[in-house]
Amino acid sequence: MAREYKIKTLPKMRPPHPGSLLKLDIVPALGVSVVQAARELGVSRQLMHGIMAEKLPVSAEMAVRLGKWCGNGAAIWIALQRDYDLWEAERKLAKKIAAIPTRAAA
After folding, report:
1. Which residues contact 32 (CB under 8 A, 6 or more apart)?
2. Are 75 and 67 spatial neighbours (Cβ–Cβ below 8 Å)?
3. pLDDT per residue over 25-36, tens digit each?
């Protein structure tokens, strides 16, 4: 079983939302519109806009689509979303988590 190594301090900088990478880097670099990207990915333009506005997460299904479309695989898209979600959750729950004891099996 993998051992978890706790980082002493939380990273101060928020990891990028996958949608910001799509909006600022990938879609412009590919020279396509959001409508064309959505069409090629087989999703609605509303979904694409929601992700690019950082209002919607990249689901596992969307990660598979983006991984194929960009040619870099789904794992990177899921990892970006995971890092973003964890960063947000750790800050949101910091006080409640501090009150939870850490237990170790004997």
Report:
1. 40
2. yes
3. 999 999 999 999
